[in-house]
Amino acid sequence: MLSVFITDPQFQGQTKEKLSTVEAQKLVENAVRDHFDHWLTGDPERSKALLERVIERAEERLRKRSIKETKRASATRKLRLPGKLTDCTSKTADGTELFLVEGDSAGGSAKQGRNRATQAILPLRGKTLNVASATDDKIRANQELQDMIEALGCGTRDKYDESGLRYEKIIIMTDADVDGAHIASLLMTFFFKEMPQLIEEGHLFLAMPPLYRIVQGSKSEYARDDAHKDELMEKVFTGRGKVEISRFKGLGEMPAKQLKDTTMDPEKRTLLRVTVPPDHSDDDKIERRETNRLVEDLMGKKPEKRFRFIQDNAEFAEDLDV
């Protein structure tokens, strides 16, 4: 703590947030600089921790300022929604769904197959930013993530407000392949880091598009994966006639009707709810810390932790789609 007494102080701006008197700056610099430099070089570990804390607080101030500016701008205009968002017509969040769809082509099929009253579509271009290893500046500058935040309307981190959430269900809908799983992982990481309350309150889901279509005469079924395909071949397609099996390369090549029937229609689809430990009991808190550690290891800045995880768990991998 430093106390300086000067006559006739000069302040910057009308809000007087910063002292601008040049003499005061020189006084403080002469009194502190050499001693502070000596301390920094003498204790590298504490110096590094201090500098990381300073940078973290600076990024937090910039983020809060950005949120304030956004709120101030939105107060003077009507709600502006992202250009690629195809919104539903319902006026309330009850019963509504937002599909986060991989790619524009799949987004086009989803728009044709959706229920316009309750289902909204937001196509995503390629792989989103990994927020676990990105700075706040990169997150703010990423248009895809900002479009998503704007579409949801509930804010992030300590500014999260469930009453502002514009949809009851947020459904991640990606291709049933490795790239699709990676995109889903990146999106789940985003929600876990920026909006954990949204997951805790049961709003986040994964769509389960089929991997195969099996046809025999007039009989047609969809299989989620290889095991489901084998089960259908054993129990359903037992009669005579040629069996045709086609594998979907992605959501974009599915006709709108097929996408609706298999993945979007609430009466026929399968959804997986994404959950996290609720952080209530001591066991929950231990599991929550373990979940945090796992997300940090798998999605964080240190690749050696991911490499170690792969080495430790390689023996348990069975079906590798590479």
Question: In a few lines, what is going on in this structure?
Answer:
Helix content is 46%, strand content 13%. The protein has 322 residues and is an alpha/beta fold.
Largest sheet: 5 strands, mixed
Mean of residue pLDDT? 85
Oligomer: single chain
Task: Let me know the number of strands.
Answer: 10
Overall, the morphology is: elongated
The assigned CATH architecture of the largest domain is 3-Layer(aba) Sandwich
Tell me the CATH topology of the largest domain: Rossmann fold
Textual characterization of the structure:
- The chain has 322 residues and is an alpha/beta fold.
- The protein folds into three domains: 1-10 and 18-56, no CATH class; 97-208 and 270-295, Rossmann fold (3-Layer(aba) Sandwich); 212-264, no CATH class.
- 46% of the residues lie in helices and 13% in strands.
- The protein has eleven helices and ten strands.
- The protein has a five-stranded mixed β-sheet with strand order 4-3-5-6-10, with helices on both faces. It has a three-stranded antiparallel β-sheet with strand order 8-7-9, covered by helices on one side.
- Strand 7 (212-216) and strand 8 (219-223) form a beta hairpin.
- Helix 1 crosses helix 2 (44-75) and helix 3 packs across helix 9 (256-264).
- The longest helix has 32 residues, at 44-75.
- The radius of gyration is 26 Å and the shape is elongated.
- The termini are far apart.
- Mean pLDDT is 85; it is low at 74-78.
